[in-house]
């Protein structure tokens, strides 16, 4: 029998071999997996109130594995195609609301937690409860943004909420710390420090005892704040006789027999009638003024939590605190679920004093069903990257106190991410851009 040459046999085998179908692209396979998880019934139902820590349904060791989210924008666990840092897709369900609580990182319109919120002529503004305008917004201001998803995130309301306003009583230039109303204010090397009337930048050493300043920042607990913006309202030697004071925080103690209120690390004398509507544990804003150098409290008002509207998407940055019913930030209860995604850590990294970025959905007033948690974030960075990836010493600028020991550098694992086209980024402008009305 005549043998077939080897080259012809190879060709015949290739011709008769069944043709392989092309494999699904990795990015598409990843999205199919995510959609399959989202479709699981009851994936985001609130846990049984009878279970977990203090009836919160959160177990002591957390739920889920390492859970690093391979997708998302800027390390936040937010879907890259979403709107305003919430994972809402353009053209999705009409009327979907968005709540963002964080810091103004840049303008054009405004960026909060790494996402753009468009300002329109219909956008409403308030500064510590008083009506304001877009011109009252400044880099580093801590804000709460209420927005709607309509192809993009349209800001309906922007609320600037200062942490402390008052006279500087102590300055530690070496530690970049101030004391105001008994609160300790920690400034970073990148904290914007400006003059109220001109936006002129100031060095930290320009701040003196007696100056009247406003502080935007994040509450670290126990009377400590991380300043994200400092504005000098008046130099001490030119301040008027009566200047404002303001303090936000949680009521830690009431002393009705002494007409005294304790908020954070500060004890304030108040009119006894103001204490009747206040309870320990409430979040409040204290307002008043200095008269002849003495602090006089005029009002103590409970503040509504940012996460109120059930069904709203939520994006926020803040420090973790341990509440009676589990983990909280900004007074908002955080409920982890079996599909909560973690980045730069896992459930074991949930510790009081850790700064985190949270995304999720409001399941009850003041309660968020957490979809993703990102650890070690920088509140002023556009993309909220993990701080160990930044230049040496940058973490100390924002999150580490001067007395805290240096932590070892932690490298995040390399993760293959889907190839998603990034939106075009607008150049930074001096003031927020306002969209023209139709």
UniProtKB/TrEMBL annotation:
Limits of the DUF5666 domain: 104-158, 166-230
Domain of life: Bacteria
InterPro entries hit by this protein: DUF5666
Region listing for Disordered, in residue ranges: 1-23, 56-76, 393-438
Compositional bias of kind Basic and acidic residues: 394-438
Protein name: DUF5666 domain-containing protein
Organism (species): Acidithiobacillus ferrooxidans (strain ATCC 23270 / DSM 14882 / CIP 104768 / NCIMB 8455) (Ferrobacillus ferrooxidans (strain ATCC 23270))
Lineage: Bacteria, Pseudomonadati, Pseudomonadota, Acidithiobacillia, Acidithiobacillales
């Amino acid at each position: 029998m005549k043998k077939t040459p080897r080259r012809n046999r190879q060709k015949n085998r290739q011709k008769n071999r069944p043709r392989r179908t092309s494999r699904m692209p990795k990015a598409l396979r990843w999205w199919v997996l995510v959609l399959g998880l989202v479709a699981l019934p009851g994936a985001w139902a609130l846990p049984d109130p009878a279970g977990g820590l203090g009836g919160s349904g959160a177990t002591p060791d957390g739920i889920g594995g390492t859970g690093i989210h391979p997708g998302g924008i800027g390390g936040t666990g937010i879907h890259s195609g979403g709107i305003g840092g919430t994972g809402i897709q353009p053209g999705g369900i009409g009327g979907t609301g968005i709540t963002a609580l964080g810091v103004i990182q840049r303008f054009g319109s405004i960026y909060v937690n790494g996402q753009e919120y468009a300002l329109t002529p219909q956008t409403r503004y308030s500064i510590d409860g008083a009506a304001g305008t877009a011109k009252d917004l400044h880099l580093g201001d801590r804000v709460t943004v209420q927005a709607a998803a309509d192809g993009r995130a349209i800001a309906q309301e922007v609320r600037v909420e200062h942490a402390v306003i008052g006279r500087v009583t102590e300055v530690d230039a070496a530690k970049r710390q101030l004391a105001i109303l008994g609160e300790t204010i920690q400034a970073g090397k990148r904290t914007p420090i400006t003059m109220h009337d001109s936006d002129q930048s100031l060095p930290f050493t320009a701040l003196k005892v007696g100056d009247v300043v406003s502080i935007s920042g994040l509450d670290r607990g126990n009377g400590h704040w991380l300043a994200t913006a400092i504005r000098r309202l008046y130099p001490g030697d030119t301040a008027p006789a009566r200047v404002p004071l303001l303090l936000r925080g949680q009521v830690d103690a009431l002393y009705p027999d002494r007409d005294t209120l304790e908020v954070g690390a500060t004890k304030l004398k108040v009119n006894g009638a103001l204490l009747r509507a206040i309870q320990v544990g409430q979040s409040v804003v204290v307002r008043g003024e200095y008269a002849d150098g003495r602090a006089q409290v005029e009002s103590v008002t409970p503040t509504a939590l940012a996460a109120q509207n059930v069904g709203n998407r939520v994006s926020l940055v803040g420090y973790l605190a341990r509440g009676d019913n589990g983990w909280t930030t900004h007074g908002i209860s955080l409920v982890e679920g079996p599909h909560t995604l973690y980045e730069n850590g896992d459930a074991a990294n949930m510790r009081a004093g850790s700064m985190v970025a949270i995304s999720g959905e409001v399941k009850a007033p003041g309660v968020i069903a957490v979809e993703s948690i990102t650890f070690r974030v920088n509140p002023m960075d556009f993309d909220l990257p993990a701080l160990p990836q930044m230049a040496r010493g940058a973490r100390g600028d924002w999150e580490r106190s001067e007395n805290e020991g240096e932590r070892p550098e932690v490298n995040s694992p390399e993760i293959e991410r889907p190839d998603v086209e990034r939106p075009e980024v607008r150049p930074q402008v001096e003031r927020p851009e306002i969209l023209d009305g139709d």
